[in-house]
């Protein structure tokens, strides 16, 4: 595959992985938890380096997933003990991210990772970091990692689709019929952490947050069915990656930034033109109701 194709494939995989997980965050009103975890994984990356003295992907993955789960756990504990959920996310997010930045500056200053790299990422370098087995180059490591994460997410969603669906829409009913809501919650947090970590080094926190929230929010405006929402969200993620790349190429701009901006533009289109939930559709409905009321 060409250099351009690898970048497009990486962006599309990020869009699909993040878009599908983001649907459940939107339904559970936990969208900003994605922002928190996408930043606190920096602590996991630095911690993994300090323990292993290696920048190998497996150590980074384990460390980041553990910190991602820890973030979700701390937020849950604070929320259950009287702290508003948005405040809980803000406290945990800033505290753990700040600890990660301090550890990075004090103990890991000699490695190629820094806070700017973590936030912005650099997708243009993806094609050069390839997976080599027995002297054979098999393509970028990021593509293999994201492909594996996508497979894991699809398998988990397929196996626990009913439980995730019911606990997302009606937690009280889920508890009443015996669904382990807490287990499902942490299953989703594990998927979120794994997805965030897989995309983090490739595209940076900003694009990860955009892809986790915006495609799912766009799909939410376009359908009332969960399965359709998952498919539309993945499609919006792919479209954002492809269009964003070519926009960045034309204007010589940040690829990750252009992809995130494109996802925002697609959301604006859905916000105004969605057949059922769009601003124009609601205005026409109000106008129709007003005309009917006057006539009667």
UniProtKB/TrEMBL annotation:
<keyword id="KW-0813">Transport</keyword>
<feature type="transmembrane region" description="Helical">
    <location>
        <begin position="87"/>
        <end position="108"/>
    </location>
</feature>
<keyword id="KW-0812">Transmembrane</keyword>
<feature type="transmembrane region" description="Helical">
    <location>
        <begin position="229"/>
        <end position="248"/>
    </location>
</feature>
<keyword id="KW-1003">Cell membrane</keyword>
<feature type="transmembrane region" description="Helical">
    <location>
        <begin position="203"/>
        <end position="222"/>
    </location>
</feature>
<dbReference type="InterPro" id="IPR037294">
    <property type="entry name" value="ABC_BtuC-like"/>
</dbReference>
<comment type="similarity">
    <text>Belongs to the ABC-3 integral membrane protein family.</text>
</comment>
<dbReference type="Pfam" id="PF00950">
    <property type="entry name" value="ABC-3"/>
</dbReference>
<feature type="transmembrane region" description="Helical">
    <location>
        <begin position="173"/>
        <end position="197"/>
    </location>
</feature>
<feature type="transmembrane region" description="Helical">
    <location>
        <begin position="254"/>
        <end position="273"/>
    </location>
</feature>
<protein>
    <submittedName>
        <fullName>Metal ABC transporter permease</fullName>
    </submittedName>
</protein>
<keyword id="KW-1133">Transmembrane helix</keyword>
<feature type="transmembrane region" description="Helical">
    <location>
        <begin position="142"/>
        <end position="161"/>
    </location>
</feature>
<feature type="transmembrane region" description="Helical">
    <location>
        <begin position="57"/>
        <end position="75"/>
    </location>
</feature>
<dbReference type="InterPro" id="IPR001626">
    <property type="entry name" value="ABC_TroCD"/>
</dbReference>
<keyword id="KW-0472">Membrane</keyword>
<feature type="transmembrane region" description="Helical">
    <location>
        <begin position="6"/>
        <end position="27"/>
    </location>
</feature>
<feature type="transmembrane region" description="Helical">
    <location>
        <begin position="32"/>
        <end position="51"/>
    </location>
</feature>
